[in-house]
What we know:
Elements: H1 5-20, H2 23-39, H3 49-67, H4 84-99, H5 102-113, H6 118-125, H7 129-147
Helix pairs in contact: 1-2, 1-3, 1-5, 2-3, 3-6, 6-7
Amino acid sequence: xxxxxxxxxxxxxxxxxxxxxxxxxxxxxxxxxxxxxxxxxxxxxxxxxxxxxxxxxxxxxxxxxxxxxxxxxxxxxxxxxxxxxxxxxxxxxxxxxxxxxxxxxxxxxxxxxxxxxxxxxxxxxxxxxxxxxxxxxxxxxxxxxxxx
Length: 148
């Protein structure tokens, strides 16, 4: 197996948390993701294991929303906000990202928070690396306009 699962666990957990906004649910989905990944060794090595992990996690997050009723999502912030300006910047950036279409905000999270390479993202979304790079730059330009 070409993928160190221990190194990917935190990234998949962050991705799940971003999608469901609930730590306990995200942990459950993350664990289920790795269980399903390990239960199907016939898929390992066919494609990219990291791409397969994100596909499983994304599908499980979508399943979670199909099973649970819609509710207002709220962000939680740490009680001791020593760095008020950083917190305000983070809130403004989160708001700008939240205004993006869901697929675009997911793409930004995967690329910059989880540090998924453009080559993996392009395969995950079924486009060329060049098209993915252009799309990310376009999203960043929209974010920059909203953020200012």
